[in-house]
Target: Mitochondrial glutathione transporter SLC25A39
Amino acid sequence: MGERPVVTPSAGITPVQQMLASGTGALLTSVFVTPLDVVKIRLQAQQTPFYQGKCFLYCNGLMDHIYVCQYGASCTSWYKTPTHFSGTLDAFVKITRNEGVRSLWSGLPPTLVMAVPATVIYFTCYDQLRDLLRYGMGFQGNYIPLVAGGLARLGAVSVISPLELVRTKMQSQKLTYSELRVCIRSSVAQDGWLSLWRGWGPTVLRDVPFSALYWFNYELVKAQLCDQYDVSQATFSISFTAGAFSGAVAAIMTLPFDVVKTRRQIQLGEMETLGVPVKNHTSTWHIMRGIWAESGYRGLFAGFLPRVIKVAPACAVMISTYEFGKIFFQKMNLDREQQAC
Model:
């Protein structure tokens, strides 16, 4: 399929404006998805109660975060002792009625500290790399979003990975900033600088393919929908539809890596909490072979429906808000130029 002869997608806006658009999208996505994950964790805890030192994953629609349950059944205000829930809708109703609406967004502020910057880096880098490859270096073809998406995600994961490790240490060991500095120095002296990127590999194995597939499908579907509706620029509904479809496809295709990454993250978090050395950890491929031996392909695709239900709308909200923000800034800058003339 040929490329659409349209203007540069990021033409007319600055990198700062791209950051503002992606930051707004990140906030809205988090606000939309966080209640779904809070309910999921509460239902999960009902089946398997959390014990002191146990870790679980929290996701605000943008990225995963390890959370350490420090006090058993009462994991601070983030997680309260659950009443019995008969299902998802019942959980929404009872949490809202008994604990207040704000409880559905518990745990959101701390995760936004990293999630928003990570998303800003990721989306801005993607646009810059795509435009550089396509318009700066003259490369053509549908593979451009694939390459730009993978590289942008690799960069974002590499920047955020040490911060996530630091955050987990602060949660699990209740360290002050001065104590944290000593702890990090000790870790670096013992295991080297690479110890700050512990858990980076499994994250990259899931997130980079997901990002590459997502952007490849998004740009393709968006172009096809623009052709179908005879528009030169994607509307909000086109971006939303393309984002949801692309997110669902990428989520399904990378689900085995997500299962392995979740198990790996929780293992690392609990080792950190218990003070167990994590030098000789099990490799990602070894974990995957173990899951296959235990449960077959069903084990590698565990959580299929919940992941798609969460990822697809999150991707749709994020990309449509981001595209809307870029169009807003393009129009604003164009109006300023016309007024200046």
Summary: The beta strands are 54-59, 64-69.
